[in-house]
UniProtKB/TrEMBL annotation:
PANTHER family hit by this protein: COPG FAMILY HELIX-TURN-HELIX PROTEIN-RELATED-RELATED (PTHR35401), CYTOPLASMIC PROTEIN (PTHR35401:SF1)
Source organism, top-level taxon: Bacteria
Protein name from the UniProt record: DUF1778 domain-containing protein
Organism of derivation: Actinomadura darangshiensis
Region (Disordered): 72-98
One GO BP: regulation of DNA-templated transcription
Length: 98
C-alpha cells in the first residue's frame, strides 16, 4: 500500500496539453495525476542523474584519472583571494583590520 500524499501541486495547461495528457493517461490505464507524476518524476531523476553521474570511454577515463593524480599547482592570486576577508566575513574580531 502506498503512503499518504500530503502535498499538492497545481499546474496550468493549455487545452491541447490537457487533452494530450488525458489521452495518454487513459491509454496507459492510469489517472492523469498518476501519469503526470510518474512522467515528471522520471524526467527529474534524468536531469539530476546528468549532474551526478557521467560516463567516460577508456581514453576519457585515463585522462580523468591522470588529472586526479596530478599534484595541485599554484594558481596565481588564488591563495590571496581565499585568505582575504570579504564583506561577508563581518568585522575583524580582534580589531586589527580597523
Amino acid at each position: 500500500m502506498g503512503s499518504a500524499k500530503d502535498e499538492r501541486m497545481h499546474v496550468r495547461v493549455e487545452p491541447g496539453q490537457k487533452a494530450l495528457l488525458e489521452a495518454a493517461s487513459s491509454a496507459s490505464g492510469s489517472t492523469v495525476s498518476a501519469f503526470v507524476l510518474k512522467a515528471a518524476t522520471e524526467a527529474a531523476a534524468d536531469v539530476l542523474a546528468d549532474r551526478r553521474v557521467f560516463v567516460l570511454d577508456e581514453q576519457g577515463w585515463q585522462a580523468f584519472d591522470q588529472a586526479l593524480e596530478r599534484s595541485p599547482g599554484e594558481v596565481p592570486g588564488l591563495r590571496e583571494l581565499l585568505e582575504t576577508p570579504t564583506v561577508l566575513d563581518g568585522p575583524d574580531p580582534d580589531g586589527a583590520g580597523e
